[in-house]
Amino acid sequence: MPEPPEGLEPLEPLDCAPLLVPLHGELLSLLSGLHPTDWQRPTVARQWSVKEIVAHLLDTDLRRLSFQRDGHPPPAPAEPARGLVEHLNRLNAEWVVAARRLSPQVLVDLLAWSGPRAAALLSGLDPDGPALFGVAWAGEESSTHRFDVAREYTERWHHQQQIRDAVGARPLTSRRWLWPVLDTFVRALPHTYREVEAPEGTVIGLHIEGEAGGVWSLRRDSGRWGLWSGAPAAPAAAAAIDQDTAWRVFTKGLDPAEANRRMRLAGDAALGAHVARMLCVMA
Asked: What's the predicted TM-score (pTM) here?
């Protein structure tokens, strides 16, 4: 990566592993206080209920333990030509349907077993070693464990937040919890802009506003977009979005049109508005 222009700095390394255990503790505490009717409340997660999201979180732990800890091979796509997203959606749907047979208490008991074990596995990996799975939503076929673990943290955080939204529970949106999510998500920006052409040296600024927010910049160098921390002096385009809108649109909880209405754009509006197309989930 070239030397950053004035006002920009390289990104700080991701370090989400220490948050996995306390985040899981927050989930168990939340679930233990749910009323029986809360488990059937609808959420924004692809029409899943609260119970179905909890089942998906359990599946996330069990898959990771099976594939990475135990070396059990992942199931092959039934129809490889249809792609990774459809394969994952099918696996998720199959599990959620089967989990309808389980009571909420059984799901909580299983999560109490799986969560600490999955966290210990992920936390014990060499941060700079090669991950089992690349972070596909950032355009990576291979990734470091550091990025893979951060992706796992964002998966667990945003699904827990969807549950909290559905049942009216206290959100986990302080800087401790949400900053690592946003700092991980923005690393998908170069992939999001991969087909957007611009002159060399073009810079686009993104300001996510709020306690957990920050400022990042995309810069075009050698025909590619690179991501930096900080705000440029004179960006070609700039987008400002509040932290609540940001995590929702990046996880498909808010459509790009609504995100565009909530964003404040400066400079080349079409260039800046492309931020709202970023997705940090496989969908």
From this structure: 0.94
